[in-house]
């Protein structure tokens, strides 16, 4: 573990961010760039930046594997990708596992069957 000054877009610098590096990452595919903690724990990136909201857009697993995701910290941006409309949901806290994120599940549908 160490701390360092990180520089984000628009030259925003944040001092004393804790981070760690691994040297035996053989469980991951070639080209693995690293890990970033996004949980609710004290050392996660969102906790250290004191951000209560973030938006993580994952690329489709069915399309080009060269595409990457996009991460926004802070307010959720208002945009669409092609004809797709972005969707958001509130996350629920679980007192037994406070570092994790949960969503409330009301219904599951497969095709026309609920």
From TrEMBL:
GO annotation terms (biological process): proteolysis
Sorted alphabetically, which Pfam families does this protein's record hold? TAXi_N (PF14543)
GO terms for MF: peptidase activity; structural constituent of nuclear pore
GO cellular component labels = extracellular region; nuclear pore
Please list the residue ranges annotated as the Peptidase S59 domain: 52-114
* Matching InterPro entries: Nup98_auto-Pept-S59_dom, Peptidase_aspartic_dom_sf, Plant_Aspart_Prot_A1, TAXi_N
Q: Which UniProt keywords are given for this protein, alphabetically ordered?
A: Hydrolase, Protease
Among PANTHER family, the record links this protein to: OS04G0448300 PROTEIN, OS07G0603500 PROTEIN-RELATED
What family does this belong to?
A: Belongs to the peptidase A1 family.
Q: What is this protein called?
A: Peptidase S59 domain-containing protein
Species name = Heracleum sosnowskyi
